[in-house]
Amino acid sequence: MRTTTSIIAALSFAALSAAPAIAQETIKLGAPLALTGPLADAGAKSKQGYDICVSAVNDKGGIDVGGKKMKLELVEYDYQSETNRAVQIVQRLINVDKVPFLLSPYGSGDTKATAVVAERYGVPMVAAAAATKSVFDQKFQNLFGVLFPNDMITEAEVAYYKKHVPAVKRVAVLALNSLFPKAIAGEMVKSATGAGLEVVFNTTYSPDTSDFSNVLTQIKGLNPDWIYATGYTQDLILIRRQMADLGLDVKVLTMTAGPSYPEFKDNVKSLAENVTTNSWWHQNANYSDSYLFGSSLKYNEAFNAKFKRDATYLEAAATAACETLALAIEEAKSTSADAVRKVLHEKTFNTFYGPIHYGKLGQNEVNAALVMQIQNDKLLVLAPENLKQGELQIGVPKKK
Amino acid sequence: MIIDRAFVLKIAFGVLLFACGAVLSAVLDNYYLQVGTTLAMLCSLCWAWNIVGGYMGYPALCMISFFGIGAYAGGIAQAAGLPETFAWLVAAGVGLLFALLLGVPLLRLKGHYFAVGTIASVEVLREVANNWEQLTGGAIGLNLPIHAGSPDEVGRFFYLAMLGLAFLAFLITAVVDRTKFGFGLRCIRQNEQAASMVGIDVFKYKVGAFVLTGVLGAATGAIYASMVAFIEPKDAFNLIMTIEIPVMVMLGGMGTIFGPLIGGVSYVILKEFVWAYFINWHSGLLGLIVVTVIYFLPVGVLGLTWRDIFKKFGASRSTTSVASDIARSAS
Amino acid sequence: MISQYIVNGLLTGGLYACLAVGFSLVWGVLNVVNMLHGSMVVLGAYFCLYGVQQLGLPLYAVAPVACLILFVFGYAIQRGLLNRVITQPILITLTLTFGLDLIVNNLVIHVFSATPQSLVTNFGTVEFAGVRVPVVRVSGMLVAVILTLVLYWLLRHSKIGRAIIAVRMDRHAAALMGIRIPHIYALTFGIGAFMAGAAGCAMALIYPVTPMMSGVFLGKAFVICVLGGLGSVPGAIIGGLVLGVVEGLGTLTLGQQWATSVGFIMMMAVIVLFPTGIMGKKGYE
């Protein structure tokens, strides 16, 4: 009985039905999204960025491919914040949905793993959320990164604070032990030491840390002038609160990348005052864009109208990733991977996101690093000079 | 080793199945090859777990510890220049050592403590991988040399590699099932003290089973790492998978030769179906599937007899008033 | 300065104790590893957030209601689902609660979204003997500890409490004594859920709440239970405090990146060396 059962049972291999592709004239963009799992928040935001681009392009009638108008279509799947899932989805997008172009998953590690697949099949993939140089270190020809490298950000920051707060001499660095936060903290240490600052403290904390009071007590004892903290928004919220609890005072407090998002202010309220951060983009940079939206401010308006809040660099980069693909297709007058890839490597795209030049290595080479600070509940640009909206306010409030 | 007709039939069927799988590699397109590779990977993990969890009845939740260790061992070996297949063997060896290291202290414990100890090992290993940068690359991850060749060739290569490993796992399971070793494991599952009284060297058997599981798990991880060409701690030590594997085996039937295969395949099909059509709710629906499997099918597909299927709904009532049964049976 | 570290550790530890006591009780009495525990804590936190932020009610009104809702939830789950598999081996019950956890987690993400949210309070800090202590953390810890002590007292002195302990000691004998086992089981699970909810409310005061916190809390609960001994309320308190302090000292000596794994390594060591925990068998009640 058991033998027959096992044979019969083992024989019933159900066919895995693949969702048939819609047979229409659209250009498909494959998008693995983290809609569940730890990256769910960021994944949802990326999706919003992609969606607004696709609808803006389609509202214009679509992309002009050598005279023929073709609409954009986003083909998305949830990879549950799991890397092996993301790799599988990219395989599926390429083999079953037959997408000609890909948008990378959120996060440096997942981008890297899926880039291996994209490279193997020769499908161009644009990454909207990977800034760490190590993601691009495998010399892939098919990986393009909208965010310029981390060291451009840290160099800009160090230069700015050194100039405006000459009293800053001692730096404490606290980084989340995950690819991007750790990498940018590493660049910070390099930039700071290079500029003659003393890095008195340099530690990483593990992702499940629920209490920073001890490491902050250590930092307090070292009396730094500048604290540079990286991590996910909830970590930064906790760090800021516990700093106030412990009475940790500094001249400059920089956090990456939490303060860029509205939920940071919502969660720490008045403690957000004077927290500095950096960004790859802000709507006040007001780049002009002749293809979509018109300008950074207009993009933000459109985003606000649709999603009821301001866009941060995360959503904007996602939109820019999609937009550069659209522009490249138009310039190449074809959807063939080789033609589009060539354009992507060579052209400088002038978008609402700023000028984007992928260059030979694939990562955006244009340095548009922004130094920012929260003042009176608003996020203001402090540098570069031509985009400046305010002056640096030194020190962070002690009491809540 | 007991070789009877049923056994020969099973082995023959298994060989046939795998042979078909191998032949299919020539005709399947890349997506199905990928699915097949993942399926083979999960099945070999299921077979591996089945030895310690199914036959021996020890709730080992450290499958992912072995998988991750194998992935990193293979990855580090390859990054250091060793050829691929050799790196896989090294990984299997590391898996063996680790199974000994983990097994000897933990196998003295029973039930809960053993399970919790194994879960803890996954957490500890992930943090070690995260922090020991010089060896593992830390949070930045580890680059592996990319297997050269066209997508078709690479897809086929890894498909066959995983299939081969799954076949090995199948054979080992079949042999374990019919030898004194398997018999000993079953005795241990039923009653450890009685088993030792019957003359089975319980500790040796336990460690042996654990080591088998470890070696197979580590080898699977190594092949996975080579396939993906980039590993990072959160990917190699994925906590959810460590519970999914026992669920798959439970679904198919613990302590059987084909149980892991059926369970693995069914679970993957269910998961694909749920994931394709319920994109926002898939993790919740998977949870529902797990609950349903446990609740209605605790002995797995292979444990059912035809009578059971019809009796199942009536049976629920009788198997489920257990709490009141205790009261009743005691009075 | 070392006093600041120790105080930090104790403050966290008190919260941890409340976090773990429900888990420990369920594990000790019911023999069920409740993978749902972390999600229940998070649910408690979200209920408090909802009540305070959306309904505008004061926290001291919302928190007890949240805890009661969780109590009912826990009771229902145990009575409805878990009682039926209660005698099955650990793997079955663990996987069942794990499946339930997946469902609850998915629901939480959909209903409350994954963006971090907090209860922002303004109680300031207190300083004594060179040690700074935020008032809200002290109150959170005090509430947690008081609740735990109340539970301990209830277990020892109320009829229901003695019934629970009796079931933990010997299931069959307890049944012979006329104790309604299914009800006691459900009650225990409900109490576990209640305590989880209370811990959640305390957490909402201190941490930004996200659905992913459930995994972190569950991990801590595991470690504390093993340290303190299963089913033991004083064990949970001691285990929580020990974990808090050890994590703090781990930060000092090994660096913050090892602070959380120190807990797990300690847990493995304790499992291997003294499986019944620091309190040993004596920490029965």
Provide a concise account of the structure shown.
With 400 residues, chain A is α/β, with parallel strands linked by helices. Chain A is built from twelve helices and 17 strands. Chain A is globular and about 65 Å long.
Spell out the blueprint of helices and strands.
The complex is a heterotrimer of chains A (400), B (331) and C (285).
Chain A lengths: L1 H10 L14 E8 L6 H20 L3 E3 L2 E11 L4 H13 L5 E3 L4 H14 L3 E3 L15 E3 L4 H15 L5 E7 L2 H16 L3 E8 L7 H10 L3 E5 L2 H14 L5 E5 L5 H7 L7 E4 L8 E2 L4 E2 H12 L5 H20 L4 H10 L1 E4 L2 E4 L12 E6 L2 E6 L17
Parallel strand pairs in A: 1-3, 1-4, 4-5, 5-6, 7-8, 7-9, 9-10
Antiparallel strand pairs in A: 2-3, 11-16, 12-13, 14-15, 16-17
Helix pairs in contact in A: 2-11, 3-4, 5-6, 7-8, 8-9, 11-12
Chain B lengths: L4 H20 L5 H26 L7 H17 L4 H23 L4 H21 L1 H4 L5 E2 L7 H28 L1 H11 L1 H6 L4 H27 L1 E2 L1 H4 L2 H14 L6 H19 L4 H15 L9 H15 L1 H9 L1
Antiparallel strand pairs in B: 1-2
Helix pairs in contact in B: 1-7, 2-7, 2-10, 2-12, 2-13, 3-4, 3-5, 3-10, 4-10, 7-8, 7-10, 8-10, 12-13, 13-14
Chain C lengths: L1 H29 L6 H18 L4 H22 L9 H23 L12 E4 L2 E4 H23 L1 H11 L1 H6 L4 H26 L6 H16 L4 H22 L4 H15 L12
Antiparallel strand pairs in C: 1-2
Descriptive notes:
The complex is a heterotrimer of chains A (400), B (331) and C (285). Chain A is an alpha/beta fold. Chain A is built from 12 helices and 17 strands. Chain A is globular. Chain A has helices at residues 2-11, 40-59, 83-95, 108-121, 150-164, 179-194, 213-222, 233-246, 262-268, 296-307, 313-332, 337-346; strands spanning 26-33, 63-65, 68-78, 101-103, 125-127, 143-145, 170-176, 198-205, 226-230, 252-256, 276-279, 288-289, 294-295, 348-351, 354-357, 370-375, 378-383. In chain A, helix 3 packs parallel to helix 4 (108-121), helix 5 (150-164) crosses helix 6 (179-194) and helix 8 (233-246) runs parallel beside helix 9 (262-268). The model of chain A is unreliable at 4-23 (pLDDT under 50). Chain B is mainly α. Chain B has one domain (5-282): ABC transporter involved in vitamin B12 uptake, BtuC (Orthogonal Bundle), CATH 1.10.3470. Chain B is built from 16 helices and 2 strands. A two-stranded antiparallel sheet of chain B has the order 1-2. By secondary structure, chain C is mostly helical. Chain C has one domain (2-273): ABC transporter involved in vitamin B12 uptake, BtuC, CATH 1.10.3470. Chain C contains 11 helices and 2 strands, in the order H-H-H-H-E-E-H-H-H-H-H-H-H. Chain C has helices spanning 2-30, 37-54, 59-80, 90-112, 135-157, 159-169, 171-176, 181-206, 213-228, 233-254, 259-273; strands at 125-128, 131-134. Chain C has a two-stranded antiparallel sheet with strand order 1-2. The longest helix of chain C has 29 residues, at 2-30. The radius of gyration of chain C is 18 Å and the shape is globular. Chains in contact: A-B, A-C, B-C. The interface between B and C is large, with 54 and 54 residues.
